[in-house]
Queue: 3 jobs
Job 1
Amino acid sequence: MSQKKLNIAIVGLGFGAEFIPIYQNHPNTNMYAICQRTKEKLDQIGDQYKVGKRFTSFEDLIKDPDLDAVHINSPIHLHAPQSVAALKAGKHVACTVPAATTVEDCRAIVNAANAAKKNYMMMETAIYTREFLYVRELRDTGQLGRIQFMRGSHQQEMAGWPGYWEGLPPMHYATHAVSPCLALVRGEAEHVACFGSGRIEDKLIAKYGSPFAVESALFKVRNQQLAFEVTRSLFETARQYIESVDVYGSKTAFEWTLIENEQCIVHHGETPEKVTIPDYAHLLPKEIQRFTTKGVYDEEHAHLSFTQGGGHGGSHPHLVNEFVSSIIERRPSFPDVYQSVNWTCAGICAHESAMQGGQIVPLPDFRR
Ligand SMILES: NC(=O)c1ccc[n+]([C@@H]2O[C@H](COP(=O)([O-])OP(=O)(O)OC[C@H]3O[C@@H](n4cnc5c(N)ncnc54)[C@H](O)[C@@H]3O)[C@@H](O)[C@H]2O)c1
């Protein structure tokens, strides 16, 4: 890879702080600036990681002419407006999931990325976990055979998380379950039928008008004879955290473990086998390989989302490397802007379907 170094800023320093040392060590980036509203926390993190440029205003940050790219990790409702503003300011954008919460905002992101001719990548951890990379390898070596069906699931109890989570429609945060299914077949969702099930307490319902404890959807993949299923719950549904994908091929099936940290299962026809998933750090520049197995905090200070997701399967350095490499190599990232917004819209349209009693809802085709 070239010697070019991109100036990167991270916006939002909860989960976002996880990425600071990765950018500090990637051979093609300068960890240029950090941004969040509260000055005290900004300075605390800035001092801890020795990042010199600090902004309490996102609007001031994106005016900086030396800044090449922003990585947005702010609360959900800010993802789309901040992404659009940064693209309009001529910056490449990486943004944590979901890309947006409305179809209109998804379209605005596509329009802004195309007008600016800058990369936009949704930083979907679920498609760079070691489990996903293992299934991808089964696909690429022909061991899966023809992919016949996929099933994603993401169940989590979000009581007590920051206020914007409370009562969030489960499918508005569906990308961790949707994306691995679509990434594996390099596809986009075409339409969806989703049912809401169960009921959460009234004070949670009030915020977003979403009553369901669980939302369960079937999606059709555009231009492929394939469907996949996704289940999501966020409140009052008793289960250990799970963020999983199962894949059924004509030769081999892969099923995620039901209990965290146990082995996943590969079925060769009728014969199941428990498998130890290898790490894929060798796919990365050597300077950031260590971040697949180690969070950037010590155990006492680890971010809950990192601990619960099993460190997100070692995905963080892969995400950084893909975002940075795509800019340097002047190619679309994976996912690119169209895939990012389709994988997000899948959940938005699924919730719409659930609110309409399970009616089929078509997804917009943003490529047209
Ligand atoms: N596996 C994953 O992909 C994964 C895991 C965890 C979180 N996330 C995403 O990351 C985002 C952040 O999660 P979190 O748990 O750190 O949230 P959080 O609410 O704890 O932190 C949000 C951060 O954004 C900052 N912020 C808020 N408004 C801002 C503004 N206007 N300008 C600049 N900064 C602002 C806050 O100061 C804070 O540092 C969430 O939206 C979530 O979707 C993704």
Note: The longest strand covers residues 147-155.
Job 2
Amino acid sequence: MTQQFKGLLIFSFLLLFNSCIELPKENKNLTVKNVMDDVITRLYKEVPPEKYNTIDDDYMLNFLSEQEKSVLATKYQYFKVNVPVTVSLMRDVNQPTIPFWLKDSGFKKTAEIVKNEEYQYDVWQKDFEAGWVNLGINGFDMHRTVYFISVGPKNSGDELKITEVYPEKYSREIMEKEAFTYHDWSDLEITEFPKELEGQVLFTTVRGRAREAHVKGAFRKTKFPSSNTPDQILLTWSKDPVNSIDIQWRTDMTIEDGLVKYWLKSKTDTLTVEAGKIVSEDRMLYNDRYIRRFTANLSQLIGASTYEYMVGSKESNVWSNVRNFKTEEKDQNKFSFIWFGDTHKDAKWGEMLQVANKRHKETAFYSIAGDIVSTGLYRSDWDEFFGVAKDVFSYKPLMPVLGNHDRQDGLGTRMYYEIFSLPKNGPEDVHPESTYAFKYGNALFLMIDSTHPNEAQTEWIEEKLKSTDAKWKFVMFHFPPYNFEEPYLDIQEEWCGIFDTYHVDMVMSGHIHYYMRSKPINNGIVVQSFKDGTIYTVSIGTTGNHNDIGEEPYAEKRYKDGQFYQHMAIENNSLKYTVYNKEGVIVDELTIEK
Ligand SMILES: [Fe+2]
Ligand SMILES: [Fe+2]
């Protein structure tokens, strides 16, 4: 062998070695997310917006590099097995396009089916040797009924061990009747499956995973893009309303710093406080993918005072116009607030808010009982919410709770946390700012995230109610324990007894789009006096969607359609509750004397 030939052979071997070893090594650091982040960036550069809706599977498969395809075909879900296994992949029969990698990777469609109460799935199978099992994306569409898998040893008698699972956060269950597959729809149970899968390891998932590579019809445009001028200016309280306030706003990415200038009204001494900042991304929002959000905490304020303020950037010298807010008067026994049921960023709700804000100038703050928007991880939804709310919440704080729509298909509620600075005084195992308590005047407000497990919050609720000296006790959470459609018996069982024991005056909810005010209820039974029972309310800021609202013997007042707002005026021992419709007509009212 000549030296030259030998050299060529070694070189070829190295090339081969590199192509076998190095490519997967490179892929090792790549995830579906960062591949899709890059792909979308490239699409924005190369494709004009009017073409976005023509992008389909064929287009994507041409557009992607081989390496990108390989990541999308292998890094959506992976794990290691210690013995040879058969992987069964359950694919919704109604998903029009088969994931591009499925057949190529050796999966074969069987004649078997799996069913749950809503859907039917084809069963695709592939055998794997001991080692890695790698699976690809659900598709470029957003088919929310994403595939799920079960895994069993190929040779009976082998003891299967599954390790290094990605994503590890979704539990592994046992394949059996009544097993669930989607954490964001855990009531959806398996009703039918091939006998051979019985007892296998069932990998659960969330429907939100359909969005990981969603491109077909995924591009959105916000009606309210950011600019260098601060907007979406929002007041909340994360601490004591007597001496502090939080101010939040957004700008485009050209603004690097955030500052609040504030002063006591009619005084000239101006104070400043720097704001924290984050970048908020909505990948598919093509006209405003990245924005900055700023949050400033103002403290050591003087109670019962009006402050004026402006927010902006010192470096860029761009400022909002002047707004104002009022601090709470310590130990005051007279105040009012307004709350809404589901608002769903409805423009008509926005109009009602403007009218309510003018009509009740004394209102100290606003609350929304969840479903503030409709799709919680679309920033375009939040932009619409602020767009229709206009400047109201830059003068009066908004203290909301989360609804199921403010989360998204099991993916959580990142944007809600980015937007609202709220008290971090909730139960230990619940995300801070998700469930919280605050006191205003002589009233305690328990603001509960009922999309979190009930049990994790019970002890905290009891502790807060037990230890308060507040005269009025209000509880707000999204899912109404009493309603005509699907009473939340679990909440009745878990929390309502505590509300009875410590005499909560009113529970405020939404979710079922109608209006209901109950008679006072104690231990599930209607009682005569407000002194002996709690009032349960459900309201809607958007319009109703029920023709028939059945019957509810415990109800005092009901309407099948909205839109409403609830004005709550407290003066010492008296609560005046007045419900207005959009036209300003009073549709329900009530006075409670303690
Ligand atoms: Fe809703
Ligand atoms: Fe809801």
Note: The chain has a mean pLDDT of 94.
Job 3
Amino acid sequence: MTKTSTAQLEHPAIDLLYELLRKRSVTPDDAGCQDLMAARLERMGFVSETMQFGDVTNLWARRGETGPVLCFAGHTDVVPPGDVNEWSSDPFEPEIRAGQLYARGAADMKSGLAAMIIAIERFVADHPDHAGSLALLITSDEEGRARDGTLKVIEALSARNEKIDWCVLGEPSSQESLGDIVRIGRRGSLSGMLTVKGVQGHVAFPQFADNPIRRFAPLLAKLHEIVWDNGNDSFPPTSFQVVDIQSGIGAPNVTPPSLTARFNFRYSTEWDHERLQRKVHEVFDAHEIDYELKWHLSGKPFLTLPGKLINATSQAVTELTGNAPELSTGGGTSDGRFISPAGTDVVELGPINASIHKLDEHVSIEDVGRLTDMYQRIIELMLLD
Ligand SMILES: [Zn+2]
């Protein structure tokens, strides 16, 4: 158990974090978080713009008119708390116990947002005439469909030729200790929605029916046997997971007419989605099976190459923790998939992710202060050199 000093409790990022956590911003409701952030940014000379798309609220704020543009990005929305009675304290009334701050969104990712704002405030106070521009891109739809959020903001910026050179995403990237992992890319995510067609029949007369479960079983085994790739220098191996199978009409003496299944690939740059789809169809077509397969691509893989942003992020983490971060492309998708294709270098650095989306989500209050210092150092290294 770590002792919490009063100095940490009085950290301005903790105060701001409290305010953000008290707002019930369950996807896609921003619940006023962005207004709060925009007000503070405007006081520092940022020009802020609310971009509303459908029921999603997005904030684009910028200080400076010239390039290069260093942008911090993130989301104000949180996943629902689940059964509130299962929480040790109210998920929307932050509480500190043993140096940890408990609330929904504490780690994913309102602590990242609070740290960004305070880091920027401190940097601007020290260097009001900095070179280039500082920007913030915040959405309220990262945990949901993610169609009217970061993707649309990037489209709007591209349409008016506004370019982000570097982006620091405040998603909870750390695993065991703050800054142990910095994400520099992500695998792609490709989902398949499968329907296997059969002929319903009496369970005692299988010769007059065609059981889709029986048809699918060997194919399912085959899909799990395949080693899709072994990854590469930058990416972990491609993974294949079945997430849902439905069949049966609810009677013990009837074989079902059809089966549906959903599966997902998290794929490395050894594949592109078209090639991966073709390979899957080849495997299917080698089996005697009548099927329909629909695809949904939710993100192509992306990778930030070594350069100034990765160097600055590594240096900031190393200076403040004594250890160089591991540069990783593991984990799920993030809004980095929408930011990177416009030619932007993207890194993700945020708090420990062990409790995200869980009951009793929490963040170390000491880490919130240290994350603020890391962000401030990154800004200095990017804009003062
Ligand atoms: Zn998140």
Note: The two ends are 40 Å apart (CA to CA).
